[in-house]
Structure formats: C-alpha cells, structure tokens
Amino acid sequence: MSLIKSFKLVLAPPHRAATPFLGIGLLAGVLGRATPWRLTRALGTAGFAFTGFCLYFFRNPRRTSPQGDNLVLSSADGRVTGVSMVAPPPALEMGSEPVWRVSTFLSVLDVHVNRMPVSGTVTKIAYHAGKFLNASLDKASEHNERNELRVTLKDGRQVAVVQIAGLVARRILCDVKEGEQVQAGELFGLIRFGSRTDIYLPPGVTPDVLEGQTMIGGETVIAKL
C-alpha cells in the first residue's frame, strides 16, 4: 500500500455511529483541560485521546468494488482465521448440508464497517444475544452475540453473512431490513470494538482464499459463484 493510500485510510471520515462517542470525548477533553486541577486536566487529555481513537476506529474509507454478478466479496477488513465446511446457521433456514464458511477476524485496528458480499434481496435476519468470547475462536459463531443475514440471489441461491461481536464489543449495528434490495460492496452495518464476520457460500461453491490472508471489505473476492 502506498503512503498516500495509507494516509487516506487513516484519515477517512467516520461512520455516523461514532457521533455520540466523539461528542463525549470532545466534551470531556474541553471541560477537563479548561480546569486548573491536575487530575481533571489529565482526564481532559484522556478525553481528547479517546476522541482520536474513535475517529480511527469508526473510519469509513471509500471502497471500489469489483463488478460481476458471480463474485462474492469480503464483508470486512481483517484476517481470515477459518475456511471450513459447516452447516449454515439454523435460524436462517438454509438447510443442514455443510457449506464453505469463510471467517474474517477484525482486530481493534481494522476498519469495522461491514459490507454486503453479494447483490440480492435480504430474505431473513436473525439476531441472537449471547456471550462475548474472543471472536477469533471457532465457538464464537455459536455462543457470541451475533446478527445473521440471508441474502437471496437472482438465481435463487443463498449466501449468509453473520456479524459476530467480540471480546469487548457490546453492540452490533445493522442498517438493512428483510425484503430490502442490496448491492455487493454496499455498507450495511458495523460492530463496535473488535469482532468477526462469517460468510456462508452456496452449496458447490468453493472459496478462493486461505487462512492467514488479509481481506479488504467490499474489494477482496473470496469466491466465484
């Protein structure tokens, strides 16, 4: 990545979900630094530092998605931590036949907005309150707080994308509803402060990525339909 691209990534405008956190950080910073007491001034400095962290964490860089109805794109930035054959989430009613699942772990330093892997119609959304285990663990897909989406393609095949909260995450944001038409690479949500996304491919479709690869949300092709 070039130096210019690196700066653009770091300085990208934040997602709207950052607004309350930025407000709290700035207010704490201004009020704290305006006082003569050492402790409150230190808290003010911490407030400004928190504001800077939120600007970085919630950044929402512009992405250019490759074109093609047969492409499945990564839903998030991060590192592939699992490529395995498993049954789709039962709540999405996609059958019990094992399919390929690609799991991408997002560290606190990664871009955390989530993007649609394919174009189609959101035909099922299932939210599950749960635990907050380390999102890189395989059992997080069954026990952690998560939000599951089923997207039906024009040809009737289905792809699932699951937002999974991590160790310190406490809120999953999803901006789409059942029945909504979506486009591949389109922003659809965010998970706060460390997380993971799983993509379940249709039967017979194999992934083109391996464990350890770095993903770019909305740009990296993980499979061809």
Automatic annotation (TrEMBL):
<keyword id="KW-0865">Zymogen</keyword>
<comment type="pathway">
    <text>Phospholipid metabolism; phosphatidylethanolamine biosynthesis; phosphatidylethanolamine from CDP-diacylglycerol: step 2/2.</text>
</comment>
<dbReference type="Pfam" id="PF02666">
    <property type="entry name" value="PS_Dcarbxylase"/>
</dbReference>
<keyword id="KW-0210">Decarboxylase</keyword>
<keyword id="KW-1208">Phospholipid metabolism</keyword>
<keyword id="KW-0443">Lipid metabolism</keyword>
<keyword id="KW-0472">Membrane</keyword>
<feature type="modified residue" description="Pyruvic acid (Ser); by autocatalysis">
    <location>
        <position position="195"/>
    </location>
</feature>
<keyword id="KW-1003">Cell membrane</keyword>
<comment type="subunit">
    <text>Heterodimer of a large membrane-associated beta subunit and a small pyruvoyl-containing alpha subunit.</text>
</comment>
<keyword id="KW-0594">Phospholipid biosynthesis</keyword>
<dbReference type="GO" id="GO:0004609">
    <property type="term" value="F:phosphatidylserine decarboxylase activity"/>
</dbReference>
<feature type="active site" description="Schiff-base intermediate with substrate; via pyruvic acid">
    <location>
        <position position="195"/>
    </location>
</feature>
<keyword id="KW-0670">Pyruvate</keyword>
<protein>
    <recommendedName>
        <fullName>Phosphatidylserine decarboxylase proenzyme</fullName>
        <ecNumber>4.1.1.65</ecNumber>
    </recommendedName>
</protein>
<dbReference type="InterPro" id="IPR033175">
    <property type="entry name" value="PSD-A"/>
</dbReference>
<comment type="similarity">
    <text>Belongs to the phosphatidylserine decarboxylase family. PSD-A subfamily.</text>
</comment>
<dbReference type="InterPro" id="IPR003817">
    <property type="entry name" value="PS_Dcarbxylase"/>
</dbReference>
<keyword id="KW-0456">Lyase</keyword>
<keyword id="KW-0444">Lipid biosynthesis</keyword>
<comment type="function">
    <text>Catalyzes the formation of phosphatidylethanolamine (PtdEtn) from phosphatidylserine (PtdSer).</text>
</comment>
<feature type="site" description="Cleavage (non-hydrolytic); by autocatalysis">
    <location>
        <begin position="194"/>
        <end position="195"/>
    </location>
</feature>
